[in-house]
Amino acid sequence: MSKSAVKKDAIKVFLTSSKLDPTEGIDFVKCEEAGAVIMFGGTTRNSFEDKKVSDLSYEAHEKLACRSLERIALEALDKFSDDGKDTLIHKVYLAHRLGHVPVKEESVLVVLSSTHRQEGWKAAEWVLEKIKAEAEIWKKENYNDGTSSWKENENSSVHKKN
Amino acid sequence: MVTIEYFGPSKDFTNKSIESIQITSLLQLYEYLEIQYTKEFSEYVKENCGITVDYEYIDKELGVEFNEGDEICIIPPVSSG
């Protein structure tokens, strides 16, 4: 199998309107060579400043967003390797939910396995920040008073892309 | 004709997600958005948004020409997670 085919087997990225399942992500990334599994779930919080949030809703340019998630996952496998010698990040699972996401439920999952915990923590944080900067997905906060507001991530970098 | 697709908050300005228009350049796109919607929206797209042509981001600094049938997407600042 070619190197790129092996790498693509090590990642799973997708968008879905269904409830996200952290256990599915954990089961996907676990492997014999890994000593650590890192799981981050971004969940809907019930407030923003002094406003009560009823839920969040997400939409995406699905083709671009999936391409971005795949690129980020593949980059994570390479970036946190040991100068290309040892595989340190083994598998990456990225999932983002679309549509309405109620309070306490996950909108995004970042799950990965690593040889040691150090690179696992670093890689998971890096992946999440890249997703928030680049994935072509938009969030709307819906408030209890019936109003709503589109959000922008501070680190969004799409306007600089070419 | 080219197709313009609007995503996320850009749809609040246009009240539509897709349209076909007769333009041949990025400059004409900005002019169209100003005339059809508002100067504010045209500036928002120019300063804050990414623009893709056939799913590839363009360099907005360059003078981009569009071809018949091009699919253009307006990509506002993102907010995943």
UniProtKB/TrEMBL annotation, chain A:
Q: Name one Pfam family in it.
A: MoaE
InterPro entries recorded for this chain? MoaE_sf, Mopterin_biosynth_MoaE
Checking CDD domains in the record gives: MoaE
Biological processes annotated in GO: Mo-molybdopterin cofactor biosynthetic process
In Swiss-Prot or TrEMBL terms, this protein is called Uncharacterized protein
Q: Which organism is it from?
A: Wickerhamomyces ciferrii (strain ATCC 14091 / BCRC 22168 / CBS 111 / JCM 3599 / NBRC 0793 / NRRL Y-1031 F-60-10)
From TrEMBL, chain B:
Q: Name one GO biological process term.
A: Mo-molybdopterin cofactor biosynthetic process
Q: InterPro entries from the entry?
A: Beta-grasp_dom_sf, MOCS2A, Mopterin_synth/thiamin_S_b, ThiS/MoaD-like
Question: For this UniProt entry, which segments traverse the membrane?
Answer: none
Q: Which GO terms describe its molecular function?
A: nucleotide binding
GO CC, alphabetical: molybdopterin adenylyltransferase complex
Organism, by scientific name, is: Wickerhamomyces ciferrii (strain ATCC 14091 / BCRC 22168 / CBS 111 / JCM 3599 / NBRC 0793 / NRRL Y-1031 F-60-10) (Yeast)
| The protein's name in its UniProt record | Molybdopterin synthase sulfur carrier subunit
Instruction: Look up the domain of life of the source.
Output: Eukaryota
Keyword Transmembrane (UniProt): no
- Keywords of this protein's UniProt record, alphabetized? Nucleotide-binding
Task: Indicate yes or no for the key word Hydrolase.
Answer: no
